[in-house]
Every structure is written in C-alpha cells, then in structure tokens.
Write a structure and sequence with these properties.
heterotetramer, A: 277 residues, alpha/beta, Glutaconate Coenzyme A-transferase, 3-stranded antiparallel β-sheet, B: 243 residues, 5-stranded mixed β-sheet, 3-stranded mixed β-sheet, 12 strands
Chain lengths: 277, 243, 277, 243
C-alpha cells in the first residue's frame, strides 16, 4: 500500500532532529529506527545526546563512531553475542564522549516521571553503587513512610527527551502508529517533547477504530512525523516481521574495531546507494 | 555415568533454584536458562521460567519495565548476573576497569544489576572465566554492591557464584564466599591460584554433585528442545540436540 | 465456545474473596464484574473494603446498600445522568461506612507505586484541599529537586489491593484474559495480591500468541481465577460489546432511594433465579 | 437573530477557548463539549477536542491515567469543572455540605478536580443552578482550592464561571470573581440576590455577546451531529438535531 501523502522520508526526519537534541531510543528488539540512524550519519549530525531505553547495540555504536554524539545515558551498550560495541568502547576509553552510566529501571523511572509531569520518581536499590556515586543528578532521601529508623531511597529526576525515535510495525493514513506490546515506545512517545517514527508497513484502515489494534496504537497527538521505511530496523530485528541480520552485525563489529574499518563500513552501507541491500 | 560440564552446571544450578516460584534469566545465559527450564519441567510448572529473548518461555508481555516492577514487588525469586570483575564481598563490576569515567577497559554497562541485586532474593553469579583478572580483591567500579549496611532496604542479594572451576556459596552475614564444590578436574590449589580474593573453605572440599540420571534424561530431551528456541547453537553443540 | 475446565463460576469467585478483603475495581466503563458483585451480595459478604479505580457507580452503590462494605476509597460514586448514588449517599450521611475521599490521579498513583514495589509516588496538586487535610496517610515533602525556595509536593503511599476484580472481553483456555485498551485493568492486576476475572467470551486460540491481541492481554501469572459470565457487566456496559442498560439503571436508582425499595430490587434481580434477564 | 441559551453559552465558551490546543471535556457536559467541538471545527483541528465518553472525539487510548498524565505535562490547555458549592475565591466543593465526614448532603466526590484545577491553565467552572445554595461565601469542603500561596507549583487554575444568569471571569491576583456579562433576561440585581459571595462588578455590565452567525450555522449542522454521538438527547432537544 502506498504511504500517505503526509508521510515524510527517513532523511527528512533526520533533518528535523536538530544538533544537540536529546534523543530517546528503544533497545535492540524494541523497534530501532536504523534507517533514520543512517540518515543522521549522512546529514553529519553533531552533539546529539542519546538516551537508550534502557540499552542499545548497533544504533548507539554507529552514532558514536560517526561522531554524532557528545553524550550518552545508558545502562549498557553491547553487540550481544557478537561481542563488545567497538566504537562505544573506544570513545569511552578515549574520553571522547560523556557517559552517564545508569541502571535499566532508573531510565524507565526518569521517563515515567516525565510522562506524568512529576518532578521525580522513587526507586529502590542502587544505594552503595558507583552508578549512584557518579550521578549528581540523582538524590537520596529518607523514605517519609518508613516506620522507625532511617530508610534511604533514591529519587530519579524526570527526563524529557527532545525527540523520541523508533521504528514501528504499522502506520495508517490517519497518523496512528502501532507498536503492539512494545510499551517502551509508548512510554517514549508520552515522555518526549516530540516523536518521530518510521513504519514498516502501511495499515489499511484506522488503527484507532480496530478494537484489536487499539491497545498497541499510539495516536497522532503524540506523533510529529512518520516515514515509511521498509526494513527500517535492518540489520536489527522487528518483532514478528524479520530477525536480525546476524551475518551483517558480525561484519559490522569486525569493521568497527578500527576507525578505518568503520569508515569503510559507512561508505559501503550508509553513504552507499543502497543501504538496506 | 558420563556427563558434560554444561550438564553438571545445569543440574547444580537447578538445585539452587529449589522452591523458587519465579525464575528470570537475562540475555546470553544458555546454562542458567536451561537450569530454569529444567526446574520448571521438574515441578510441573510450579516453578516458572522466564527466559529473556524467548517468545515461548516468557510469560510476560508488558514491555521492559515489567521485569523490574515484578522484582520490586518480590515476584521474582531468582535471577542471574555476571561481572567483568567480581570481588570477595560479591561486589560486581559491569562497567570498566581502571579509573572512571575514562577507563582502561570499558564493559557494556550495569544493565539492571544495581536494582535486581537488591530486589531478587537469590541472585546467582555466573562467570565462567576463573582468573585473577575477573575475581579481584576489590572491583574498580561497583555496579551493584554485594551487601548493604543495616537500614538499606534489601530483600535480595547474592546466593552463589559459579565458575569454570568451582561453585562458591555466599554468606550474607559475613559478606564472604565459601567454596562449596569443585568441578571435575579442578583442584583447590588451582582455585586459590586463580582467585584474587580471600574466601572461606571447609576442610574437606569435595566435587560438585553429579547430575541425577532423571535430570540428565530431561536435559537431553525436553530441555534441549526448549532452550533451542533461544539458543539453537548451544542446544546443538553442547546438549547434542538434533531437532 | 465452551468455557475451559479450569474456569470456575462467578459465585465461586465470590466465595474466594474473603470478608474484610480490600478489593480494587475499575470504573463504570472499564469492565465491571457485576455478576460477581451480585454473587458477593448473595454470599452475604461483610466488611469488604472497596478501592474504586478511580470512581464507581452501581457496583459500589449495590455493595454498600447490601451492607457488604465497611469502607470505601474513591474519587466519586455517582449514577451519572441517572442521578446520585442512593445507597452511597445514605450510608455516608448516616455514617455507616468509612469514606476515604481521594482524587482520581492519586488512586492511580497509589496503585502504580504498588505495581512497582515502590513505597510511594509523588503527585502534583492536591495541596490546600480538604481531600489532603483528611488523609493522614498522604504526606507532603519538599521537592528535593526544586531550585531555590520551598516546593511542597504530595507523596501517595503504595496501596496493594488483596483482590483485583473486573470483567474482560475475552478469556482463552490458557488462562489469559484480554482487556484491550483498558489499562486500568492491567494496572489493577499488576498492583494487586490476587486477581479474579470474569470474561464475556471464550477466545479460540492463545491470546499471547496472537500478535494483535498481545498488547491487550493479561497473562496467567497475574490471574488467579477466571469465570465465564456472559453479559457479566450487565446492567453496565462492555466496550464494543453492549451498551449500559439505561432503563434498568434508572429503575435501580428509583428503587434504591429507600432501603425497602433496595431490598425489593435485590430480591428481584440478585436473589432471583435469573439475574441478567 | 434568534438563538437559544445553549447556543449563546456554547459560543461564549468557545471564545474563552481561543488559542487552546488541547481541550478536554469531562462527563455530563454537553454544552462545554459542543463548545470544544466548535473550536475544533473553527480552527480546522488546530484546537483538539477530547470528549470523555465519546468513541470518535477522543484522541486518546491509553486508559484512565492518560488525561492526568497529559495535564501534568501541560498538554491540556482547558478543562471544565462544576461544584456542589463554589465560593468567592473559586474554591470548589464536590464532596458534601455540613460537617465532614458525616455530612448533611453527600455529593459524588472530588473526581480529578484536586489535580486538574492545579495543572490545567484554563479551568472553566460551569454550574447552571445560580442560587445561594450553590454560590456560597465559603465552601464546606474544599475539593480543590481556587488559588494557592506562592511556592505551591500551580500552572493551572480557574478562568471563568458560567451560570444560568451570567458569566464571571476570575482574577487570579485578587482571588475574586468579576461579573463579565449577563445572560438574556437576567439583571445585576438578580445575580446579587442569588450569589452568596461578594464579587467585583464593572460600572456598566452588559449582556453576553450574541452568537456569531457563522458559529450558529456550524452549531446547527456539524456540531449538533458530532455531539449527538455522546449526547443524543441534548443534540435533539436543545440543538434541534434531526439526524
């Protein structure tokens, strides 16, 4: 089915994400907008700050390798069974990127506070870790509901990304996008100032009017622009649509181990004529 | 009876999961995942295995926060963690070695450890490489502390540490590991040589108990099939699955 | 389709809700388990405490009229366009029920804290109201993230219902229930110690294996028992299934205006042979 | 030009919603709902109406907390509230008269007022019964206060009060209502006689501006049709909808 006329392209989305923006993105299997990620590299984006919800793989690594990021807040960047994330590791070791180490539920809590317009959310745990010791923006208070004795608890501040960016399974001509059970994408859209989405397929009909699709649909009040990008998560997976391209990921990890190899990879797969070959 | 190291570890972990109603297993964990599925099979589902990355063996559907919400409620009884470094107090380091934030070697990051180590009653540390590089006297970065002072709300914590040489149990009162059993071929001396932290040791340290025949049979049939959905190569190469 | 053998009856659910239990229920259009409500009246339940999420209509009113409740925490009990809730009004005015007045988002916050295992959740607003003045269990702290000057904010304690009780559109033979976009029911199931559900229809297949149903499905780990109850929300509505029975609601309001009329109503519609006529 | 009281009020409210991007309307509110839909139609959708209880004119789908979350974020610009009692400082009482908690007359409850009155910039109070029973000097129970002392985070608050006799505007600096216009047939004396609180009044109080012809035409066609989905009797009996 043809994309609605209101849809823009992945490159147009990239051009609407300004340098310096704080971008929230889902984890590897959550619907990663890789086509827009490549477009950000192509448009030579700079000083972006990435908030991974709560972890990332190739998306973060590629943006770091291409010099698009000045900062990353994350609970982990890894290529999973393909090994460590080469550009991430290099940049942190060389001190060329600011890293804000977090732990998964703390990142959800920061977004949930933003979703509610609350200044903070409490979270158990974390106390005594160097994660907490290195986060001046996280606070510890005494639980006011504790009975007898001190009961320290961490408060996470609300974090409102400038942009939520993800890839969804369906979009319709009314501006709805369907993420199914990927609640992280719903959270990201609710918590962020603006939301850009690529969709794999065009849904014939109104997703908000289909009782079965409704629970997994994000309505247009939260969505600023949609692009149609077939295989838009490639080489990562899209649930119930395609698996990740393990061979390609392996070759990426191998290439990215050196800056030269990474540059060659970009030439071939990002600047090349056909990215999603 | 013949068995492999993987089968031994699966059975050893399964024993540690006795009585756990909800067992969660994170990514890249085929051996813990097999153990969780084994316990699920042995209990007729009274113990429930939740394998991250599995479409079938994951009874949850409400997105990333759900595991942490459930753990916070006390609804996750057992979980597995690793560590780039682990020290004698069971502090774990998933972040980096050397100075922070510009380290010598950067690992992926703390993931959910700084939360789950506090909330899950039985956290089993699983780290196969048994070396002084990994098992250090003091970790360079505490992703999650092995123990907390009184007054810090902490229903959870470390339970055991499994390596390629041995199994340690963790003493929560004394914040120390105690050697519990040796893997086939490993010696106490070898463990001492390759461990950078001090640990307790009973006088007569013996081998880890061999797999029970009924469990071995299950592993070769149902468990191999079940784990093959998430870890096909592991099932094929390590458990001999030919499905 | 026949109900799975593991299903129990609405009356069995009522018998498994012990006297004194704190029961969380959704609002009028959220899937109200009216058949179980009638069964609770039939079994002469006593000292139940009701938490309405966040408001209620006939369910609360009938339980109050029948003397099943000792306490109610609510943001509002009303029969909507059919007028005030007669039994509720009478019981509060006569002081025969303990009322804990709340405001809608505070009730969500109390459950969300329970869902996360957090001791509390912050919420803006409320300060200076008599709602807050009458809630000794709600606390005000100074926002630790405020820059310069005092910034009071309310903290709501986690509230964990003993029982979540609601009516859902579908149940399957694997113990899954489908509530579609009724996130309050998901929240209730997550936040409560146990969950009892009646379902309108039996779904042929596994709801967790249908990509389109997945986002609206509550898996069996949260569900303690399911009953099949056709028209189980009657005389209230069930989304996309049936409208509320306005004529019946009107007759209920009229009857419930006197204790005698209420007793007659129960005889006819609750103790009678065919409740959902 | 002939028009009804409902049409007059719909147009008056629509003027108050000028510039509001997101307008939310609660239950049992056909006149505010019609006004919100009118503004949506007039702005070509730039102003968005969310009618509670409507399947079509409600662009949200994420359950009960969503409205409050959006309001907390500043994403709801206008909302409507009523009150069993309303006093001269715009305190509203949706709970009860007489002593609390065992009152003389119990109302349904505070609903979302104690939150939305703080978070929504333009809260329009709508209460048709204009009597000293409703408009009191001091409410018996404050469901939500009309104003807050400095230091209390409060981006929202009362904007106007609409009754069957007149329209008041609210002065947030002085915490007082100011009479803004009389409805057809109503006199200043009548308003004073039936209002239990003191209010400001300009020297020459005039009538509420008549409906604009283009708006009237829209109300009779598109708006009547749209509101008929949620309030069929209102659309038929008050707006003459014959669809």
């Amino acid at each position: 089915m043809k994309a609605p006329e209101s849809y823009i392209s992945a490159d147009e989305i990239a051009s609407r994400i300004p340098d310096g923006a704080l971008i929230g993105v889902p984890k590897e299997d959550g619907g990663v907008a890789m086509e827009v990620t490549r477009a950000l590299v192509r448009r030579n984006a700079r000083n972006l700050r990435l908030l991974t919800v709560p972890v990332s793989s190739m998306q973060a690594d590629m943006l770091i390798g291409a010099g698009c990021l000045s900062e990353i807040e994350t609970s982990g960047v890894s290529m999973g069974e393909f090994g460590y994330a080469p550009s991430f590791r290099r940049a942190v070791q060389d001190g060329t990127i600011v890293i804000r180490d977090a732990t998964c539920p703390a990142l959800y809590a920061e977004l949930q506070a933003s979703e509610k317009g609350s200044p903070f959310q409490p979270l158990r745990g974390i106390i005594g870790s160097d994660v907490l010791a290195n986060r001046a923006d996280w606070k510890v208070i005494d639980n006011p509901f504790a009975e007898g004795g001190s009961d320290p608890i961490v408060l996470l501040p609300a974090v409102r990304p400038d942009v939520a960016l993800f890839h969804a399974r369906y979009g319709d001509r009314y501006g709805n996008v369907w993420v199914g059970p990927k609640r992280e994408c719903v959270l990201l859209a609710h918590a962020s100032a603006s939301t850009f989405v690529t969709v794999e397929e065009i849904w014939d009909g109104n997703l908000m009017e289909d009782e079965r699709m409704l629970a997994g649909t994000i309505p247009p009040v939260y969505v600023d622009a949609v692009a149609h990008a077939e295989r838009g998560a490639w080489p990562l997976s899209l649930a119930n649509c395609y698996e990740r391209d393990g061979k390609h990921l392996q070759s990426y990890v191998k290439a990215a181990k050196t800056p030269e190899g990474f540059t060659d990879y970009l030439k071939q797969h990002v600047y090349g004529e056909q990215a999603a070959a | 009876m013949e068995y492999t190291r993987e089968e031994l570890l699966i059975c050893a972990i399964a024993r540690m999961l006795d009585g756990c109603k909800n067992i969660a297993v994170g990514t890249a964990s085929p051996i813990p995942g097999s153990a969780a599925l084994l316990v699920q099979a042995l209990t007729g589902g009274a113990s429930r295995a939740s394998i991250l990355g599995s479409d079938i063996h994951n009874p949850f559907n409400d997105g990333g926060p759900e595991l942490f919400d459930r753990a916070g409620q006390g609804r996750v009884d057992a979980f597995f963690l690793g560590g780039g470094q682990i020290d004698g107090e069971a502090n774990i380091n998933l972040v980096s070695t050397g100075p922070y934030p510009e380290p010598d070697t950067r690992f992926p990051g703390s993931f959910g450890s700084a939360y789950l180590y506090f909330s899950v009653p039985r956290v089993i540390l699983f780290r196969e490489e048994h070396s002084r590089r990994v098992f250090v006297d003091k970790v360079d970065f505490i992703s999650a502390p092995g123990w907390s002072p009184p007054g810090v709300h902490r229903p959870g914590g470390p339970y055991a540490l499994i390596t390629s040489l041995c199994i340690f149990r963790y003493d929560r009162e004394r914040h120390r590991f105690r050697l519990d059993g040796l893997l086939p071929g490993a010696t106490l001396e070898e463990v001492r040589d390759n461990t950078g932290f001090d640990f307790d040791c009973p006088d007569n340290i013996g081998p880890v108990a061999a797999p029970e025949p009924d469990k071995l049979a299950l592993i070769h049939s149902r468990i191999a099939e079940e784990i093959s959905e998430t870890y096909p190569e592991f099932a094929r190469n390590r458990l001999g699955w030919q499905g």
